[in-house]
Design brief:
The structure is a single chain. By secondary structure, the chain is α/β, with parallel strands linked by helices. It has 18 helices and eight strands. Among the domains are: 125 residues, no CATH class; 72 residues, no CATH class; 66 residues, no CATH class. The longest helix is centred in the middle third of the chain and has 41 residues. The radius of gyration is 28 Å and the shape is globular. The relative contact order is 0.06. About 2% of the residues have low confidence.
């Protein structure tokens, strides 16, 4: 059973105001499961000054017990300088208490060999791993936390740089990113840090606008849950040959909540199904991380090419030398930088970026076959009806190789998770094919 929280009187190290804080030294998840979330969110044994908003961690030992997962963990902050015999006595008292109070049928062997930790972070990682959250997933969350800090700094100090930063990191700005950012907004709103809450809200709105993230969809509590269940079903049941495509398509939904829900399915499944789902979880994680790395590499390469073109006396020559690097990622980075320059009133830079954009499109067009140029023209229309009208006006260009190329491009788009473009290409292929007969 959990020991009751101790209330202590402290002095704020920042402003000197008195404050009261609760200290938990024995957390039994079986008795008080709600305390687990406080631990995982970093709120346990934290003192927040109501006068200045300063937050400070309280150095306190902690026993963590989860009977369902058979975890018995202990943590002693190094700054306590606790003697070994003091630590042994503290752990021994908790062990004796659990041995007396656990039901007779409950396994107890794990209690006799507690795991000891020198840092609270490593203890939390162990708790998360028992929940099915891997170190890779934890590291992904840390990277997103670092990204939020970077974007917040740019938003406050160099707002004109924000669009370029968002474009550079677009591959990792997903639903999980906004969930974490929303949590920071909520936390700041509940404290005395009104300025921080307002700043984070503004940052969220700008990043959502730059990425096209539809945050209002989260207001409907049922819709995200249905989407998550559907994603779980599809990814759990898909064949190995379909998994790569599905992960790309459903990547925005594959976040902490997804893996938590999948872990819950594993824990309630029978042995054979649990083994299959555990293997599938590893597959999904590996594919998602690889796709994220590949996307980030594309954006990094796009940013590097743009920098080289900006610094070159002959940007067209640079672009022609690296024609293969002119892709969607490069054009997104370019467009984001051009927009930032225009908003900042830096017209000469905006004009130079617009010229590089024109040159990039020209270089790509130079390398295209007549068929590919025609396909680009078809895709440039805002509505399918306009593209269909062009097809009908261009009967001499409708050939078997054109239809074949449309189908090949449709497959490429669908396999890379770009379903809308892929479906549009498939429709064009059907219409062009019908005109051959």
């Amino acid at each position: 059973m959990s020991a009751p929280a101790q209330v202590v009187q402290l002095t704020c190290p920042n402003c000197g105001s008195p404050l009261r804080a609760q200290i938990v030294t024995f957390l039994d998840v079986g008795q008080q499961p709600q305390l687990k979330n406080y631990l995982l969110s970093g709120q346990m044994n934290m003192a927040v000054c109501q006068a200045c908003g300063n937050a400070a961690a309280i150095a306190a030992p902690l026993i963590y017990h989860d009977p369902a997962k058979q975890l018995f963990l202990s943590y002693f902050p190094q700054q306590l300088n606790a003697k070994p015999e003091e630590q042994e006595r503290f752990v021994g008292e908790a062990t004796a208490l659990l041995m007396r109070t656990l039901p007779p049928e409950q396994p107890k062997g794990y209690i006799l060999a507690p795991k000891r930790f020198l840092t609270l972070n490593t203890l939390i990682e162990t708790v998360l791993e028992a929940d099915g959250v891997t170190k890779e997933m934890i590291e992904s969350q840390r990277r997103q936390l670092d990204l939020i800090s970077t974007l917040a700094e740019a938003y406050e100090q160099n707002p004109e740089q924000l669009p370029a930063l968002v474009a550079e990191h677009r591959a990792v700005i997903d639903a999980a990113f906004f969930t974490m950012l929303d949590a920071f907004v909520a936390q700041a709103s509940q404290s005395t840090q009104d300025g921080s809450a307002e700043m984070l809200r503004g940052l969220r709105d700008q990043v959502a606008g730059l990425t096209g993230y539809e945050g209002e969809a989260l207001d409907d509590a049922g819709e995200p849950e249905l989407e998550l269940i559907e994603a779980l079903d599809r990814l759990s049941d898909a064949g190995d040959d379909e998994l790569e495509l599905l992960v790309a398509e459903l990547r925005p939904l594959i976040d902490y909540s997804f893996f938590k829900a999948l872990t819950e399915r594993i824990e309630t499944a029978v042995e054979a199904e649990a083994t299959r789902l555990t293997s599938r979880r590893s597959q999904i994680l590996e594919i998602a991380e690889r796709q994220d790395r590949e996307a980030q590499e594309m954006f990094d390469a796009g940013a590097l090419l743009l920098e080289q073109a900006l610094q070159a006396e002959d940007p067209a020559a640079v672009l022609r030398e690296q024609r293969g690097a002119i892709n969607e990622a490069f054009l997104l980075v370019l467009e984001a930088n051009r927009g930032a320059a225009e908003r900042a009133g830096q017209q000469p830079i905006a004009e130079r970026l617009a010229e590089i954009q024109r040159l990039a499109v020209q270089v790509v067009e130079e390398s295209l076959s007549p068929e590919e140029r025609f396909i680009n023209q078809l895709l440039s229309f805002e509505t399918p009806q306009e593209a269909t009208a062009l097809l009908r006006r261009s009967a001499t260009q409708i050939t078997v190789p054109l239809v074949k190329r449309l189908n090949e491009l449709a497959d490429e788009m669908l396999n890379s998770g770009r379903a809308p473009v892929g479906e549009r290409l498939r429709q064009l292929a059907r219409e062009a094919g019908a005109m051959l007969f």
